[in-house]
Design a protein that fits this description.
GO molecular function: acyltransferase activity, transferring groups other than amino-acyl groups; endo-1,4-beta-xylanase activity
Largest sheet: 8 strands, mixed
Structural class: alpha/beta
Distance between the termini: 26 Å
CATH architecture: 3-Layer(aba) Sandwich
Signal peptide: 1-28
Oligomer: single chain
Number of strands: 12
GO biological process, one term: xylan catabolic process
InterPro entries: AB_hydrolase_fold, Esterase-like, Mycobacterial_A85_antigen
Radius of gyration: 18 Å
Helix content: 25-40%
Strand content: 15-25%
Protein name: Endo-1,4-beta-xylanase Z
Order of helices and strands: EEEEEEHHEHEHEHHEHEHE
């Protein structure tokens, strides 16, 4: 059980950027939309951010979750479709998780340096430094976690295995981490990230960017990144199977630091919004608590 940092005020927030009215909740957080110039992308990098209640008044640095959207999605998906704000407000108010910042970035790739954009490089070289210089967040690994759904779950798995020094934990919801290649009806087969000059799906590109290219090196080093994985039992893309393969591979390496859940549902928002609380509880159980920025 976490001790909640209580602000001097009760905040009632209007999510103006999204046109949503926040519930009357003690210490309710705020969601706003922003962008900044990305040197890697050569264009603006959009993101939506959740700041916990009391953020503006409390002299604290907060743990941060980077929450990734799915294929052909946007930085607004988790806020509009996934109920992120309501879930965060509830879990923080109940003490189930600490007050935290959630960054929901937007990308036109599967969070990889694909054929259409260098999304992974931009995430690490531009987005994380921007967030750490703009907001009061814990800059060390123990204050940073990552999660996502579908293609965002695929990105989450890749990020934690390829960059274990960057994340304290991860949560991959219905991760589209197909081996050897996506099924024919997956958007991975037609996404610009994996389409070569001939406009055809490049299986070699997929293989080079999938988690199977990183997992051996991950296992060979000492850092362990706890990972929560789930899938709907009726997932149309057979992710329950692919996620089980990933889980078993990690379970052999870190038996006490990986969890796998199969829940009722398809590849759909009901699965992701319903399991978001458990995923949040999991990742934030591994982060540092909010800490004072005021010298002792």
């Amino acid at each position: 059980m976490y001790t909640v940092t209580v602000s001097r005020y009760t905040s009632v927030s209007l999510v103006s950027a999204l046109g949503l009215l926040a519930p009357l909740t003690v210490n309710a957080g705020d969601i706003t939309h922003h962008d900044f110039a990305s040197e890697v992308l050569g264009k603006d990098y959009p993101y939506t951010i959740y700041l916990p209640g009391g953020y503006a008044e409390d002299a604290l640095e907060y743990p941060t979750l980077y929450l990734l959207h799915g294929s052909f999605g946007s930085e607004n998906d988790w806020a509009i479709k996934g109920g992120l704000k309501q879930t965060m407000d509830k879990l923080i108010s109940s003490g189930e998780i600490p007050p935290a910042v959630v960054v929901m970035p937007g990308a036109q790739s599967w969070w990889v340096d694909g054929y259409n954009e260098a999304a992974e490089t931009a995430f690490f070289d531009d987005l994380i430094p921007h967030i750490q210089s703009t907001y009061s967040v814990i800059p060390e690994r123990e204050g940073r976690v990552v999660g996502g759904l579908s293609a965002g779950g695929y990105g989450t798995v890749n990020f934690v295995l390829e960059h274990p020094d960057m994340f304290a934990a991860g949560a991959a919801l219905s991760p589209a981490s197909y081996v050897p290649v996506p099924p024919d009806h997956s958007s991975g087969k037609r996404h610009p990230a994996y389409l070569g000059e001939d406009g055809e799906f490049d299986a070699e590109k997929w293989s080079a960017l999938n988690y199977t290219a990183y997992i051996d090196d991950y296992k060979a080093q000492e850092l362990v990144v706890p990972l929560y994985i789930n899938s709907g039992d009726h997932d149309t893309f057979d992710i329950a199977y692919h996620a089980a393969v990933l889980y078993q591979s990690l379970r052999e390496h870190q038996p006490k630091a990986v969890e796998y859940r199969v829940v009722d549902g398809d590849h759909e928002w009901q699965v992701w919004s319903d399991t978001l609380p458990e995923a949040l509880d999991y990742v934030f159980s591994y982060t540092s608590r909010p800490r004072s920025t005021t010298p002792n």
